[in-house]
Amino acid sequence: MSVSVPAGGSPDGERLLTPGEVASLFRVDPKTVTRWAASGRIRSVRTPGGQRRFRDSEVQRLLRESENGDPQELPRKPVNILHRR
Questions:
Q1: How confident is the model over 17-60, as pLDDT tens digits?
Q2: In what order do the strands lie in the sheet with 52-55?
Q3: Which residue range forms the structural domain that includes residue 15?
Q4: What is the structure's pLDDT at 53?
Q5: Domain contains 85
Q6: Is residue 60 part of a domain?
Q7: How many domains does the chain fold into?
């Protein structure tokens, strides 16, 4: 779900993070964060220019859940296992 953001910040004044900032916290690619938003795993807001931003409180909640091992809410990057022949 995306919500439009008025010029100057989030509708409620909360700090907003870029996909790159969120990606560095989760150690994933920024495109992965964009896919999480598109699939509804994390909510985003849109800037007047159409870029996605993420509320700091929601990102921190997801980080806490990932530390507590709650797999339902944790956006996860798939693990690829390579086998040698």
A1: 999 999 999 999 999 999 999 998 899 999 999 999 999 999 99
A2: 2-4, 44-46, 52-55, 16-17
A3: 2-68
A4: 96
A5: no
A6: yes
A7: 1
Sign of torsion over alpha carbons 5, 11, 17, 22: negative
Determine, yes or no, domain membership for 9.
yes
Q: Which residues make Cβ contacts (< 8 Å) with residue 23, sequence separation at least 6?
A: 29, 30, 32, 33
**How do residues 7-20 score in pLDDT, each as one tens digit?**
445 567 789 999 99
Amino acid occupying residue 1: M
Question: What CATH code is carried by the domain that includes residue 60?
Answer: 1.10.1660.10
Q: Considering the domain boundaries, does residue 75 fall inside one?
A: no
The pair phi, psi for residue 80, each rounded to 5°, is -100, 125
- Identify the pLDDT of residue 10: 59
